[in-house]
Amino acid sequence: MKPVLCNYYVTYRCNAACGFCDIWQQPSPLIDLGDAARNLDDLRRLGVRIIDFTGGEPLLHPQIGDLLAMAKARGFLTTLTSNGLLYPKRAESLRGLVDLLHFSIDSPVPHEHDASRGVKCFGKLMESVEVALALGERPDLLFTVTNDNVHHLERVYETISRPNGLILILNPLFEYNTLGAGLSDEVMERMAALARKPYVYLNPAFLTLRQRGGNDPDAPVCKAVSTSVVISPFDELVLPCYHAGMEKLPIEGRLYDLWHGERVAWHREMEGRHEACRGCTINCYFEPSFAVSPGTGYFWESLPSKARYTWTKFVVQRLSARLGPKAADLPDFEQPEPVPSGDGAATASDLIELPVLR
Ligand SMILES: C[S@@+](CC[C@H](N)C(=O)[O-])C[C@H]1O[C@@H](n2cnc3c(N)ncnc32)[C@H](O)[C@@H]1O
Ligand code: SF4
Ligand code: SF4
User: Fold this and answer.
1) Residue 162 C-alpha to ligand 3 middle, in angstroms?
2) Total of domains in the chain
3) Residue 74 near residue 41, CB atoms below 8 Å
4) pLDDT score for 81
């Protein structure tokens, strides 16, 4: 099986300090462009189609525009999620280079969002939405849903997502190490209810996985190793996934060979079977896992939501951009002048298989 995507950690550094994430606590370099060029060539040979430049905060990499351009030049679909702090400064240089741009939002209430992110950043986030709209981008809003912020979902939908025609992605909180907490049944019901509305994306299979207690090492659903290549800022291949991180193989320009070597074969055989994998619900690995497991309930349950996301992203948003989008009032900011977007590189067939969450 060919891996579908690469989670390319350009740095673990971050300019925020979210309570449900510990990536920002790790010391980290920034990836080197020469290493990235070699790895992107090998990723192409491996059959990878999507590069998610992630972190930490990916916009902290001063050459993030060059990295995106390198991936685009090799024909990859690119995705990037940002907390928005640096986007207004970088937006012009990123224009047209990110096929799927996501901004993270945890609350429509400025001080609550800031408290969740550990820094004052709501204002920059709203400015990022404005700037992106003005440049003709259609960023998705990535809402990490917790027991504490679920009551704000509707307001984010009504005031930011719907009026601007932006997709609201519901990202159920997952637990790892000592972070995160289980979601209550009521929270999951609220998410499922909102997901019926247009412009809202939720993969319902995430909820089913949770209701069943997460991944079972005796009958694993996880296909992290088969589907996802994880590269660290230290230029290591991380196995079996970023969060378990049991083995880190220095790449040194031989990603293709490593991928076909013994260690990766072993991790592929063991994916989802470790004791650490018991109860796991880490969305970013399960979405591609569901997509490559035809015949399972998770596959069929995921499909309509993916189709709806693709339709909205590929048809509705592009059509509305051509007709002349309007930017609605955003909290605390003036309306930008909208600019119609050009064609992106993504195709409908890429998008239907796309892991929306990461
Ligand atoms: C790891 S961050 C990297 C990109 C960027 N720093 C940001 O926050 O947008 C990617 C996404 O993962 C989400 N995330 C972090 N920890 C999570 C957790 N425990 N459960 C679910 N989502 C989480 C963040 O809210 C963010 O939307
Ligand atoms: S902004 Fe992103 S990487 Fe930084 S701490 Fe928050 S979730 Fe983690
Ligand atoms: S089950 Fe979770 S911890 Fe185990 S390999 Fe998959 S994503 Fe990683």
Assistant:
1) 34
2) 1
3) yes
4) 98
Nearest partner of 152 among 195, 191, 186, judged by Cα: 191
- Ligand 2 atom at shortest distance from the alpha carbon of 14: 4
Tell me what pLDDT residue 178 has: 61
Indicate whether residue 288 lines ligand 1 (CB < 6 A). Answer: no
**C-beta of 195 in contact with ligand 1 (< 6 A):** no
Cβ of 145 below 6 Å from ligand 1: no
Does residue 32 lie in a domain region?
A: yes
Q: With contact defined as beta carbons under 8 Å apart, do 181 and 252 qualify?
A: no
Ligand closest to Cα of 56 equals: 2
Residue ranges of the chain with pLDDT lower than 50?
Answer: 332-352
Amino acid 334: pLDDT: 33
Ligand nearest to the CA of 357: 1
CA of 17 to the centre of ligand 2 (A): 6
Residue closest by Cα to atom 8 of ligand 2: 21
CA R_g for the chain: 19
* CA 315 / ligand 2 centre spacing (Å): 31
Is residue 271 situated within a structural domain? yes
User: Domain of 211?
Assistant: 5-323
Listed residue (339, 345, 341, 337) closest to 318, CA to CA? 341
Would the CB of 284 count as within 6 Å of ligand 2?
A: no
Atom of ligand 1 nearest to the CA of 106: 25
Question: Could you tell me which of 172, 174, 134, 140 has the C-alpha nearest to residue 157?
Answer: 140
CATH of the domain at 245: 3.20.20.70
Q: How far is the CA of 45 from the centre of ligand 1 (A)?
A: 29
DSSP string, 156-213: HIIIIIHHHT--EEEEE---BTTB--PPPHHHHHHHHHHTTSTTEE--HHHHHHHHTT
Measure the CA–CA gap between 229 and 284, rounded to whole angstroms.
Answer: 12
Q: Which residues contact residue 301 at a Cβ distance below 8 angstroms, ignoring those fewer than 6 apart?
A: 203, 204, 205, 208, 290
Question: Considering the domain boundaries, does residue 97 fall inside one?
Answer: yes
**Residue 235 covered by a domain:** yes
Taking the CB of residue 25, how many other CB atoms lie within 10 A of it? 10
Provide the residue type at 19 as one letter: G
